[in-house]
Amino acid sequence: MRRTPDEGRRQRRGGPLWRYLAALVLLPLVGVVVLTVAAAQARAAEVAGAERAEVAVRALALLDAARSGVEQEMIPALTLSIVDDPVAAAALGLPTFFLRAQEQAALDEAARARTSTDAALERLTGNPVAAEAAAHAAEDVTKLRRAYEGRRLGIEELHLRFLAVSNDLMAAQAAAAVAATSEGVPVATMRAVSDVRTVAQLAQATARQMPLFLGSLLVDDQEQLIGSRTAWETAWMDYRDAQRRMDTLSGEPLREAWQEVRASDVVADLDGLFARGLAGEVRNLALPDLVVALLQSQERGTLLAGLVGTAVEEARSLVEADRARAEDRLQAVLVMGAGLLAGSVLGAVLLGRSVTRALRLLAAQATEISQGSLVEVEADGPREVRTVSAALGSAVAGLRRIQDQAQAVARGDLDDALLDEPLPGPLGEVVHASVRAIVTSVRQREELQFALAHRATHDPLTELPNRAQAVTLVTSALHRGRRSGEMTGLLYIDLDGFKAVNDAHGHAAGDEVLRAVAARLRAAVRPGDVVCRLGGDEFVVLVEPVHAEHDLLDLAERLIASVSRPVAVGTATATIGASIGVAVSRDGGTDADVLFAEADTAACRAKAHGRGRAEIFDETLRLQLAEQAELEAAIAHGLAGGEMHLVYQPVVDVASDRLTGYEALVRWDRPGVGAVPPDRFVPVAERSGLIRDIDRFVLGEATRQLAQWRAATPVAPGRPEPTVAVNVSGRHLADRRIVADVAEALEASGLPARLLVLEVTETVLVDDPAAYDHLTELRGMGVGIAIDDFGTGYTSIGQLRSMPVDTLKIDRSFVASAEPAHLELVALMIRAAHTFGLTVVAEGVEEQAQLARLRAEACDRAQGYLLSRPLPAVEAGALLRRDALAAPAG
Ligand code: C2E
Ligand code: CA
Ligand code: CA
Fold first, then answer.
1. How far apart are CA 468 and CA 140, in angstroms?
2. Which residues have a Cβ under 8 Å from the Cβ of 709 and sit 6 or more positions away?
């Protein structure tokens, strides 16, 4: 296929669909990715914050454990200093054995506290929040231990350095708390961390009370006492503050635990002891009281450590929950983002695939349709695709209906109901209109062909099959008979008295009678038998199969009876009869022509035997027919062999007795038989078609002869030129070739047309319109026309007015008759002919009286034995010469 450049450009301009779809999908996809990443980043930051907070809380707890350890180590350390210092021991009023006993306990206690401190600090290495502070504290603690183990420090200084380490750790705790409560940490967590700090501060403040209290008991000089009391009071206030802050605890379980601790005996006893000490009421403490106080202080420390642990646990679990939540959220965001991404990619791919596939399918189907194959249109997909598919489908349906109609027309199936269905759309209208036009024109042509065929095979007047069709039908019936071995019958019907009806009532009435006869014949025969009209008043009935000959005779009698019933013609009624000849072929071995001739012959005999009867073609007839066939052959042979010649009977002018011309009459000298009269062989020749050859011979010979006489004997000036009359058979006259035959004869002889007269019988003029036309044409050429044997036929005198004739020849029977009626009739004929400008010739004048009568009635010419018998050519020529010589005298 070739594309125009314009088409090509249009094709290149559009990219494939998947590219647009990808662009359409990628844009939001990028958005989804960006949003997901942003959300994931936020969630990741949350997770990182939560993790940091967790680390910080862990640091907070460990720092607190370390601080608590340091503070627990402080009392045994101080105890060891006191054991070594007799002044201090004395100040406390402790006996030496007690101190010795305490030394070991202090050592044990210090080792236990040290382990817990070291473990806590150890665990802080690597903790980003508190590693530095832990390292610093570990260093300080190590130095401090070395110092008190070597007894190098005074009680006071020892105490201060312990406090300093404790303070450092407390500061680190504060920093860790800040780190734990950085931005983004939930309020609950923040509160929990703050609770840890609050509880830790209380624990620290509490831990410092006992050393300071004991210290205040040790002091003896005034200045030292004031300093020690100040530190002690400050610590007391810190403790009070820390206790007050405990009211702000947010954790409910923690608050309840604190309430319990606060209400415990140890806390109440110690608070009472320290309150009294502060008021200066305790100057000295008995040993048992001191031991109790120390134990109580230890127990309170444990309680508070538990409280801190609870707070830390609370904070840690919150922070862990935060982290888990943040991680969950991050995971959810990631899963959601990934899901969205995968979903939209999958959706885009599926949508793209389904649309592209559907469009590709549609395109393939559309291509096939454009190439003329009307495929089934099927495409699934989005609604638009289905809409296009449906539209294409309905277009195909329309095309298919167009195709169906075209196929019906091509098949020639014009009665298909499909062809009446309108087609959709303007194209459909056009196609449907052209289909209708084709159908109509084909139908018209078929009807015309049928009409032509019907006209060629049927008689227009009666609608019966005509002569040609009758021959065809009889031929096929004989074929069938030959195969089946059954008899075939043919009835030849010749109407009697039909011409009389025509004369009496006119042609229209004659036609009506013929139609009535046709209807009666058809009604009388069996179904399957065929009635045909051969022309004129002749019909045939074809009967097959025939069981017996007498069946045919019975049928013939029935037909005669039926036809003989009167026929209503206008207001009058006409009565006709029929003579029927029957012929039978026993085994189909007869020719159609022969069967027709046999039936015809039988009909002739029926007519000859008195009409209104049926005759069957029998042996006698067969013999006759055979004779006739023999005669035909002899005629043809004789004509070709020069056995025919002409004689010329003079036609005389009645008034002047002078010769006006001759009638040429044919003679046949049949070798071995002698002269055969024309009445014997002319009818036979007429039946066989040989008559045309005879007439042509006579025409040629007569014109040649007259031309020769004219050349030999010129006519005297003022005298009419002699004519020659030639008899033309009615059968020849109906043949179109008569005109050419006459023209040829005139041409060959050089005779002027006006000197030739054609004699025709009146029945020819009345019955045959073709003969009538040919005569008109011949007359136009200048040839004279005479009606022969006038009076024997059925022509009324009135009809003469419109006929193409110049001469009337009154038949011999009228001329010879002496009956008054006939005499009257002759006189009438002469007068009427003259009225119409015709020349009258009386035939068969044998007596003088006849001639006299004719002369009296002003008959123009006469012909007969009285005047002259027909003469051989030589004599006729001699007569013509004599007449010419006599002319100047006459
Ligand atoms: P037609 O045309 O009426 O010819 C006149 C016949 O009457 C001729 O008989 C003639 O010899 C005879 N005839 C003449 N005058 C008398 C008379 O006074 N008394 C009697 N009794 N008869 C007379 P023909 O020659 O035997 O012819 C008989 C018929 O044969 C003719 O009748 C004509 O119809 C036909 N015929 C003769 N020659 C030809 C011909 O060349 N061609 C054709 N087609 N028919 C011919
Ligand atoms: Ca004649
Ligand atoms: Ca005649």
1. 153
2. 722, 876, 877, 880, 881
Helix (H, G, I), strand (E, B) or coil at 58: helix
Lowest mean pLDDT, pick from 230-234, 622-626, 849-853: 230-234
Give 385-434 as a DSSP string.
HHHHHHHHHHHHHHHHHHHHHHHHHHHT-TT-GGGGSPPSHHHHHHHHHH
pLDDT tens by residue, 576-613: 999 999 999 988 888 999 999 999 999 999 998 888 99
Closest ligand 1 atom number to CA of residue 732:
44
Of 513, 515, 501, 525, which Cα lies nearest the Cα of 464?
515
Question: Contact, 49 vs 182, CB < 8 A?
Answer: yes
- In the listed set 401, 423, 451, which residue is the last one of a domain according to the structure? 451
In a domain, 35, yes or no: no
Mean pLDDT of 745-765: 93
Do residues 78 and 211 touch, judged by C-beta distance below 8 A? yes
- B/e letters for 522-545, b = 16+ CB within 10 Å, e = fewer, are bebbeeebbbbbbeebbbbbbbbe
Count H helices, E strands: the chain?
A: 30, 17
Q: Which residue from 184, 180, 190 is spatially nearest to 53, judged by alpha carbons?
A: 180
Do 240 and 91 belong together in one domain? yes
Check if the beta carbon of residue 696 is closer than 8 Å to that of residue 646.
Answer: no
Ligand 1 atom closest to 646 (CA) = 41
| Ligand 1 nearest-atom number relative to CA 728 | 44
Predicted TM-score (pTM) of this structure: 0.47
388, 508: one domain? no
Query: What's the domain count of the chain?
Result: 4
Does the beta carbon of 695 sit less than 6 angstroms from any atom of ligand 1? yes
Could you tell me if the CB of 393 is within 6 A of ligand 1? no
Query: Residues 249-269: pLDDT tens digits?
Result: 888 888 888 988 888 888 888
Mean per-residue pLDDT, 527-531: 94
What number is the average pLDDT over the span 463-484?
A: 94
More confident residue, 222 or 774: 774
Q: Which residue has the tokens 């180590």?
A: 73
